[in-house]
């Protein structure tokens, strides 16, 4: 009886080892499952409307830049860049001289390319070029860089628009000596909707 029990135990051990060996062979050469790449962002931003009825933030899906209510550009993608040729000392012969901005305004083929790139970067779902103005965040009449992508963005809405009045008011204030050039540039680059209030000008 003891001999039979011993033989049965030995057989069980041999069977277990055999099964283990088969499983080990079956697992050889099988790499672990690779993690799936993270899906691209599919966050959708619905269009919003300002109190004036003008589009404030257009509908967007993805994109590396994100418009803010106002409409305001992404402060990282479009921080605003100044033109080094314009300084406080030479405003009389540059921005305050009639017709000067027309001498530095970039051609349409340049701004259209930047607009197309901007529509893609901002992830706008409406990709029609006609519904955006390629806007200089710091306007040329305030010494903004003419062709630097960091100073241009596809602003929703047609031209002229509400921001144009702010630009004109700030230019008059700078040229009259009421406001310093750098202060006007900083105010409009930060938030054009509050620039006049911040500087104490405008109606």
How would you explain this protein's 3D organization?
The chain is globular, with a radius of gyration of 32 Å. It is of the alpha+beta class and 203 residues long. The N and C termini lie far apart (110 Å). The protein has a domain at 67-199. The strands form three sheets. A two-stranded antiparallel ribbon has the order 1-4. Strands 2-3 form a two-stranded antiparallel ribbon. 34% of the residues lie in helices and 9% in strands.
Low-pLDDT runs of 5+ residues are: 1-54
Tell me, what's the shape?
A: globular
How would you spell out the order of helices and strands?
A: HEEEEHEEHHH
Share of helix, binned:
25-40%
Based on helices, strands and strand pairing, what is the structural class?
Answer: alpha+beta
Overall pLDDT level: 79
Give the percentage of residues in beta strands. Answer: 5-15%
Please give the count of helices.
5
The main β sheet shows up as:
2 strands, antiparallel
Report the span from N to C terminus. 110 Å
Strand order of the largest sheet: 1-4
Taking all Cα atoms into account, the compactness measure Rg is 32 Å
Number of strands: 6
Topology:
Layout: H1 2-27, E1 44-45, E2 48-49, E3 55-57, E4 60-61, H2 108-121, E5 132-136, E6 152-156, H3 162-175, H4 181-190, H5 195-199
Antiparallel strand pairs: 1-4, 2-3, 5-6
How do you describe this structure in short?
This protein has 203 residues and is α+β, with helices and mostly antiparallel strands.
Structural descriptors:
203 residues, alpha+beta, two-stranded antiparallel sheet, 5 helices, 9% strand, globular, disordered N terminus
């Amino acid at each position: 009886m003891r001999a039979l029990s011993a033989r049965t135990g030995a057989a069980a051990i041999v069977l277990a080892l055999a099964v283990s060996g088969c499983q080990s062979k079956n697992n050889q050469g099988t790499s672990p499952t690779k993690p799936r790449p993270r899906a691209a962002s599919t966050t959708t931003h619905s269009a919003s409307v300002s109190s004036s009825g003008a589009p404030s933030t257009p509908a967007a899906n993805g994109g590396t830049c994100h418009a803010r209510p106002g409409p305001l550009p992404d402060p990282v993608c479009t921080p605003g860049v100044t033109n080094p040729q314009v300084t406080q000392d030479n405003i009389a012969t540059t921005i305050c001289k009639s017709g000067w901005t027309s001498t530095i305004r970039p051609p349409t083929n340049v701004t259209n390319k930047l607009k197309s790139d901007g529509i893609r970067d901002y992830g706008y779902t409406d990709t029609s070029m006609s519904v955006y103005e390629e806007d200089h965040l710091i306007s040329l009449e305030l010494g903004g860089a003419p062709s630097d992508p960091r100073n241009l963005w596809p602003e929703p809405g047609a031209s002229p628009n509400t921001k144009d009045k702010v630009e004109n008011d700030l230019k008059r204030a700078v040229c009259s000596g009421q406001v310093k050039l750098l202060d006007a540039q900083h105010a409009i680059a930060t938030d054009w909707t509050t620039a006049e209030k911040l500087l104490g000008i405008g109606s």
